[in-house]
């Protein structure tokens, strides 16, 4: 027997009113506010501060000497060429293969045999974060019992990425607080003591947050030891070009590992070195045994991408491939990367000199010894809080200074404030 339509509707209404009135206010009552992101939260606080003196040396985003965000000239020219010339159709799930091919050359070398032999499974990713996350999900899916060894310290988001992919995390020694340099001996011990076949996360260059990279000789030893132990090296290369000013030189660590026959994984990003921060363009690559395996791996990476975001965005990929496939634009890019790296190096010297002139009792040698976008100052969270509260200087509480935010206009003010909060330490 069929109940009348009106009776059913009345029943549904009555039920949903009953549940509705009770649950309206309770669906998300168990949700507490998330903790502020230790890096992006600093930008939020900076933006909310009305002080005219405020300085942002928090997020790693390049500024010119007037403190303004930069759109590279090569990017402007690429955009002029793209405008009206390209359609905005969906990319394939793996993204723009043109962009990916050019990107692989930067990491693996223009004449890489691995590229010629089609042994690299590679997909466009949502910048470096997206590349790391795709890899972490892939690791979980195909090596479900594995863990990831992460350096101490590392970029805070690395922890979030592998946590959300549900890959257990272990740490390895990296930075030595007393020397403000690499803790090479402990790092090597940790590699030796990790169970054979462990996954290691390595920063290819310009380590974030410390600005401390192994020397070439140390990289060789690290590579050798990882090989002996059968570990998997996963490189996060978010700053290619920012360490030395030359992307080719900054790929040295990766090339050493490739020469030693490692089957590496690599996350690449154009956020910093092309200034394409908000375009979210990057690449994940995994070196495979042969072409057949590379095809299988790539298809699985695409399958992970499909339910998350279907396919990556097109505009940034077009900008990158336009620049890298045109020799003139590529040369312009290389010049501009060097210009950014050099300005930062100049600011390191200026900050150190200012602190020394103020008569700081501390050594600030590490400011010029460290490389890349960041200086790991050694300041305590309390000292950083004083910088923020008393001087409107915004930076992460681990004492990391984004040198990209330091300018000839603010370096004196910054040095003076650092001196004030550290002089009695
Ligand atoms: C940083 O470390 O400041 C950058 O990589 C930006 C970010 O997303 O954290």
Automatic annotation (TrEMBL):
Cited InterPro entries: Aminotransferase_I/II_large, Asp_trans, NHTrfase_class1_PyrdxlP-BS, PyrdxlP-dep_Trfase, PyrdxlP-dep_Trfase_major, PyrdxlP-dep_Trfase_small
UniProt-listed GO biological process terms: amino acid metabolic process
Gene Ontology cellular component terms for the protein in this record: mitochondrion
Pfam annotation, one family: Aminotran_1_2
Alphabetically ordered keywords of this record: Aminotransferase, Pyridoxal phosphate, Transferase
Domain of life (superkingdom): Eukaryota
Keyword Transferase recorded: yes
Family: Belongs to the class-I pyridoxal-phosphate-dependent aminotransferase family.
Additional note from the record: In eukaryotes there are cytoplasmic, mitochondrial and chloroplastic isozymes.
Subunit structure: Homodimer.
Name this polypeptide is given: Aspartate aminotransferase
Annotated source species: Macleaya cordata
